[in-house]
Task: structure prediction
Amino acid sequence: MQNKYFECSNLIGGYGGADILHGCSIAIDKNEIVVIVGPNGAGKSTVMKAMLGMLKIKSGSVSFMDNDITNLSPQLRISLGLSFVPQTNNVFTELTVRENLEIGAYTRNDNFEETIEQIYELFPVLKDKQSQLAGELSGGQRQQVAVGRALMTKPSVLMLDEPTAGVSPIVMDELFERIIEIKKTGMAILIVEQNAKQALNIADYGYVLVNGQNKHFGTGKELLESKEVRQSFLGG
Amino acid sequence: MEYIDIINALVLLSNFVLLPAITYGSQLALAALGVTLIYAVLRFSNFAHGDLMSFGTMVTILITWWLQSVGITGGVMPTALIALPFGILITALLCILIDQGVYKFYRKQKSVPVVFMIVSVGVMFTLNALVRFIIGPDDRRFFDGEKFIIKATEFKNLTGLDEGLAIKSTQVITIIVAIITMIILFWFLQKSKTGKSMRAFSNNEDLALLSGINPDRVVMYTWIIVGALATIAGVLYGLDKSFKPYTYFSLVLPMFAAAIIGGVGNPLGAIVGGYIIGFSEVMLTYAYKKFLIYILPTSIEPSGLMQFLSTDYKFAISFIILVIVLIFRPTGIFKGKTL
Result:
């Protein structure tokens, strides 16, 4: 079977104590939005961190562009083209919006002005606030800075850990719209989400994780329509 | 009371309070900047900073002596200014050496800040002993060149006032060098890529690592800058007063007070804190008798020295201010923690 662009299979492991992942597998292709949903404590964020190399896994493998990257450090994975937006503390609060973007491009040695302009086009509000400290922005604007910073390396995979946590529904809808636009550039976008309904609406594929294992898999639409998924945690 | 008395009083105050306080404040500000940088990036209180200053000054003195022995002097300027860049270089190298040999071990162990602090006390004693071993514990003056820009008598002749204003060249050199150093430091932190990466690292270490910032590089640059700041502060202090290892060791107290008052980890706070401590020490230990005689009517002239505290107690002032700030604004004047 041909490997997907970026995938992990049969991951088992945790943060050092009891295992959180019990053999779950996620796969994503270019030009796709894949959403991981599930109840609290299902290991959604954990599997994303494992794919980034931020925790030691006991068994299973991670591959990217047909290369096994299971043993690479997060830094090396990022330099290969992965990019990650953490759920909390995802901006440099004491740096201006523009400096946040510049730090995002830290590993780049070419001229990144064009990328900054593209991010300002995507999130126009950031251009107006570019000399303001990121810590002074509203929650939604901060998330835009966080996503913008992650996009500065021109990654091929963008990973978002609960990007809509703590923002208003209007801001959430806008953010999802932007994410669809980012997808159009050919990027693979992996999202862990609490707001399962809205996230599955924009997803090409979705995974439902329970107890660190894959419970359901399907297109976003299939999962939204599946009676079992709806009853178990979408709230009817 | 005549207006000439007020001018005399102001000249008196400039000569004995304003100029010395700005000079001492600048030296403390540079020292506190070093403390604050280590706190912001490496997240511990570096008690060895006073002795690092002492080491940097010693190296500069040794190079100054060597320069003088081969016939190179600064002319009207102190020769130590020519030796300063070499002193900075060697001190920065020592900083990297200490970091690689000592602090790196504890970083790998992920030690808590209090362990780093105690380790820095160890480094402090070691450096202290090293300096005394090499140059001795004596008081040394290494100033040469023109001592005054304006002498008190020249000023009196020039203005016809009773009070003289003596401007020492070391005071002017301190202020100019301090301003240039601060401008370069702020430009570096605000505008350069490395400076921004240091601020980012200081603000959010995890996200800095996710952005591909190399922590070893940030730490190395921090030590180089801290070594430079310590040497500059130490040499300026030594030129202005004198060099004695024990004095530098005891400077740790006012410099920490300066850094904490401003908000430890905040460079602007370190500078403001340096001047607050500098001015407080000089103003509270100055005897105002002569000043009051000038401005008060003869009928209520003071008989005592009109001195708040004896100079022997000047360290108490740092502590009093420190306690007041910690009670009413524990984060310092500017909120500290990050660059």
In short: The CA atoms of residues 150 and 184 of chain A lie 17 Å apart. The beta strands of chain A are 6-13, 21-28, 33-37, 57-64, 67-68, 82-85, 157-161, 188-192, 205-210, 213-219. The first helix of chain A runs from residue 44 to 52. The mean pLDDT of chain A is 92.
